[in-house]
Amino acid sequence: MEDTYRPGRAFPDNALLQNAKQSPLTNINYRELQAVLDAAVDGIIIIDHRGSIRSFNRAAERLLGFTSAEAIGQNIGILMNRDDQNDHDGFLRRYQENRIPHIIGTGRDVTVRRKDGTVFPAHLSVGAIAGEEPPRFVGFIHDITDSRRMQAESHQLQDRLTYVSRLATVGEMASGIAHELNQPLAAMATYAHACDRLLGLPQPDIEEVRSALKLIADQAVRAGDIIRRMRSLARSEESARAPVSVNTLINELATLINSDAKAHGVSYRQELGTGLSDVCASGAQIQQVVVNLVRNALEAVGGSHAGRPAEVLIVTRQLLDGRVEISVRDNGPGVPQALREQIFDPFCTTKAAGTGLGLAISRSIVAAHEGTLEYEPNVPDGARFNLRLDPARMNTP
Predict the structure, then answer these.
(1) In this structure, are residues 72 and 48 in contact, taking their beta carbons and an 8 Å threshold?
(2) Which residue, 91, 241, 285, 301, has most beta carbons within 10 Å?
(3) 262 burial type by CB count under 10 A (0-12 exposed, 13-18 middle, 19+ buried)
(4) C-beta of residue 88 within 8 angstroms of C-beta of residue 76
(5) Contact by Cβ (8 Å): 26, 12
(6) Distances in Å between the alpha carbon of 110 and those of 65, 145, 236?
């Protein structure tokens, strides 16, 4: 049996690799080829056109729990779950029929089964060995368990950072929220005292007392609504997305933003477009982005300047390309030219006590929604941040 290696020939079976001779054509002997295979960190498996395993390196033994003696001659399906096995058999069959590659030359993530039945995620790359007829294939199996775990941990850290940022934003709004709550509480106390006085009269007017009690109830609902909106903004929730109206999201924030604007001495307005498409989004996360942008604007313009009242404006509209835009605009000093390329970078800030994370987190949230968040100078002056999201796709039969 020939036991020299030539370009275009399949790697020899493991049994042949044990008896190496120097190849006069390549100056590479089988021991060197075996050393290359065994030094590889990834599992390397060679199969024939029927899916039978012909070569099984040491990394494959470590990853999969089979010895090469146990694996060679077995069908590659022993390493797959049933769905992947059916797909793989179909790929081999179609390749033999028309030589059109489906997974050859490309990588994909698969679930691999060990000898003991346990499974792990892996990245599989497959190549056809040139010059072989019937064809043979070489597969590289890379265990991605650690990268999947690190990716999951990264998502968890991102979610925690987003939640902490949300709480910090609500905390910064506390003074405005406290002022807003104080009004209905003070009104409730006033109406309660009035009821007490009315009931102390020799002939109390019951209808007047009833009217005062209704006013107390109305103010209690108002206070409860403020607290509910604050808790909604601060809550930690899964990033589940659903079709939502951006105008509804903005209107739900109106009370909190108005309170914050009053505390900063800034006029707040909304110009909400009509007939806008819904967007597929996590409502709380998009609201967090809007609140971050509004608070930046409020702090930038706080008070009056250049003889003009300070103003923050939110505009919503549908763009010609179908996207829905939320634009937060102010008439403050704008972003310095030198910082415009870095304002979305972490820790970039113009505030003395700022962390520089608000805009970075906001852009990461928008990017996760496959949207964009960009800055441009406002006209005639100030800053303008444009948040753009794709319309929700409607399910069609």
Answers:
(1) no
(2) 301
(3) middle
(4) yes
(5) no
(6) 18, 11, 33
Q: Which pLDDT score, from 0 to 100, does residue 320 have? A: 92
What's the fold here for domain 153-389?
Heat Shock Protein 90 (3.30.565)
- Tell me how crowded residue 30 is: count the other CB atoms within 10 A of its CB: 20
Fold designation for 14-143 = Beta-Lactamase (3.30.450)
pLDDT tens, position by position, 116-139: 989 998 888 887 777 777 778 888
What are the extents of the domains in the chain?
14-143, 153-389
Mean pLDDT, the chain, rounded, equals 77
Residue 386 pLDDT level (bands cut at 50, 70, 90): very high
The DSSP output letter for 191 is H
Question: 27 pLDDT exceeds 60?
Answer: no
Phi and psi, residue 219, nearest 5° = -70, -35
**Arithmetic mean of pLDDT, 21-47:** 69
- Contact by Cβ (8 Å): 87, 38: no
